[in-house]
Amino acid sequence: MEAREHVAPKKPILTPKAIIHQNFGSRACYVVEEVKEAPQTECPGLNIPQMGPCLYRCTLQLPELSVISGTFRKKKDAEQSAAEIAIDKLGICTETIDPTPQEAQESLVSRITFIFSEKFVVCDHPLSGHIRATLWRKGDLCGSIPLSVIAFYDAKLFNLCKCINPEVESNPFLVISYIMRATANLHQFLATSERHLWIRRLSPYPQDIIESLMKEHGSQKCIQVTAVHIPSSVEQSIEAVTLHISSREYYLDIIANELGFEDASNVLISRNLGKASSETRLFFTAPKSYLPDLSSKFPNGKETLYLKGSLNVRASYFAGQDITGDAILASIGYTRKSRDLFYEDVTIRLYYRMLLGKTPGGIYKLSREAMLASELPSRFTSRANWRGSLPRDILCMFCRQHRLSEPLFSFHPIKTTSGLSGSCLKVAESGENVIECVNGFSVTSPKHSDSELFKCEIKLLSRCGDLILLCSPKDCYKKQNDAIQNASLKVLSWLNMCFKSMILPFEQLYETVDNFNIQIYSKNIIRDLLAGQSTHNGQLNGIHCNKFVESIYMNSSYDMLGNIVDSLKIEGPYSGVCPSSGSLPCIRYSVSLAVEGENLKEVIEVCDEFEFEVGVGAVVSYVEEVVMQMSVGQYAYFSTNLLSTELIFAASAGDSVKMLSSLISKKCCMEYEISLIRVAEPPEERMEQALFSPPLSKQRVEFAVQQILESHASTLIDFGCGSGSLLEALLNYPTSLKKMAGVDISQKGLSRAAKVLNSKLVTNSDAGGHLTSIKSVILYEGSITNFGSQLHGFDIGTCLEVIEHMDEDQACLFGDVALSFFRPRILIVSTPNFEYNVVLQKSSPPTQEQEESDEKTLLQSCKFRNHDHKFEWTREQFTQWASDLAARHNYNVEFGGVGGSADVEPGYASQIAVFKRDWKLEDDVLKHADEHHYSIIWEWNSKKE
Ligand code: SAH
Ligand code: MG
What we know:
CATH architecture of the largest domain: 3-Layer(aba) Sandwich
Number of helices: 30
Enzyme class: transferase
Strand content: 15-25%
CATH class of the largest domain: Alpha Beta
Protein name: Small RNA 2'-O-methyltransferase
Family: Belongs to the methyltransferase superfamily. HEN1 family.
Shape: elongated
Cofactor: Mg(2+)
Radius of gyration: 35 Å
Bound molecules: S-adenosyl-L-homocysteine, magnesium ion
GO molecular function, one term: RNA binding
Distance between the termini: 113 Å
């Protein structure tokens, strides 16, 4: 018989990029980025840094669509791949015509003929490897190839079957029946078995071919491969198995033995479940009723083949397709790359890592390589603060894992001058401001008439392109990337919530979509997606469903356990350097599994440097709580109840039997050891610098300078001077000041202030003087709630961002002490405007409805700007405090602020009260019972006179 491959549809001569160019020209924009390889399919050590090869991924942006390629070693491959995906998505016609089902049927016959030809057995096709290996099988089985192998290892054949019946995509086992049918026409050439599912060539291959294959094969070694056994009964645990395959055996027979069969005829094979370069598949038992009825003639090509038998819920969830009976997860097979059998170990740990990687939170955890990473952070603030895979990448990965099309991102650039909707409309109409997102924070800034804002809309589509879910957040961002990441995070957060609430009825989850700006177009697909099932069967019976949900629940209930910290001990000296909201603490930790009373401890995960952002839910809540109580250099020890098995196995390096049995025992707990290595930058400062131009602190200084200039003051006290930023800044301005003093209770702040001022003043005088006329600067240690009698008679007092660091009654006391004892002509007090936190802390501004209905709730959900703040006042609270204080002491008070504007909600970022005394002091007023002398920390006097 002549072996000629029938090439059905002619392949296009143009490359995918060329086709995209034809269609879009310069409107197609390719962006290639460097990436690290996805970790969960590789089985890397959780703690071993990978030095993988440099890989590239390409994002192709077209007017209505943006696609992302897989990762490639070469940039140009990534670009071609992105182009190919886009062509596929857009349905651009690249081929002549799809074959009709009739033509496909014929091509199928010639393809099968080709597969069993002499030419094919020596070529480098994965199937050829199988054919060669089956020649070593004994007796009748010699040369017989399991049908499932032919069905699943030849893409061409698969595509032809898809032309016959598109349902093949969702029910790949249909391919087997089409092959059976095609083979029936080839009975002079091929033998099939009705009882067993195999095909064999009738005439033996020529002797010379056999001989050369023998030589080649003889050089191959015996191999040992670790695989994972997933029993169909959920009561039995997942176990590691070792496949011993000698050079004279067909590997599928060995897998069949492991599943309890004599040979591979009854073994079915799933699609590849790992990364494309691996051969990770599930091998499982063909159920009895699966044998297709060959006598029926498949008249319309619309028949469906159901797998009846005991559904393996864990394996089904894992594979996203129905898997029956016991299953083996192994990474083994023939590839185009080499004629030798390719294999990699699949450990229990890898199994759990892959499982974890199916949920949005799990993907995030894996990308952070840390079990202490939260399921998914609640907020995307900025690229710099986001650790681990970015939300958009996680979403793409999620879609790939769940056999969906790549998500579609579309942008709606919005001109600030024209039709904005929702929140932006409101802000834009109210006049001067638009919402922008600088480094992930939203701020109000003066309107630029030409500025563009972005909204991002995300569509999730099924494999076949049906719309499943649409997420259209109302928020606008100044940067396109912020819009994508935040929209992606919205979708992911909803999906993650669904995964975590697996036990809830779907209808209940469905009610939550509005909060996430999500519309669902196919409830069924979503439900199946969450159930980890492909839609092709729909035959899950009640028992299956319940068991199934249970097993998933067990797999993802980690956060629902509500871990409670037990016997917390913090050791080591207090250094005073503490994390606060928004800062980036870096910890070293180890987590162990401990069996109570038995002195048994197994280290699950050790991490030398783990950095996270405080206050955005980037780390599991109980760890954040503990770290917030620590200062740099301290150690914390505590324990919690057990983590989920999935997480423990995914993290731990050993598949130890001991651990497994420990887990079953109820007397286990997790023990944590954490040390706080460092804390990066105070958050408030960082925020003030990043969001305001000039930085808010500079604006406060400028505000003070203005007052000083107007007042012609010659002496100034800075109450709560901290590290001396105001005093230092004042040296740069030409004011009327002659003498300045700073007071603070913090030794550390004062010594920093002394250092800064010293270097500035010494350097400046060496260089020939400074801008100011300042003759003396003194730093005092003391509490500003006490009267330091050395400081009476000063003209002006400043107290910037200090009162919120004291308890409210102390702040009131300071006010009274300042105005009744110090009695400066002018006192300037600034403090954060709590209402402004809505702008600082929400990724989006409130919408109109929100503003009216739950303005309070929104505000209540805001955190203080700095962990050290004891309170933050609203405008009303501040006004009340300042007015009462002024009235008590016969001062006038005026209000102002910096950052934002008084007329635009929610007012200034920093609110400032300026108290003024318009009466003269009498000389005797400074006699007081409770006089107090502050102690001098540092002093400088000008040598020039
Ligand atoms: N005014 C500075 C520092 C603000 S931080 C600036 O604008 O940069 C707040 C400062 O208030 C800290 O340095 C803290 O030590 C100080 N502080 C808090 N309570 C105090 C008190 N009772 N007496 C003096 N200083 C106090
Ligand atoms: Mg403060």
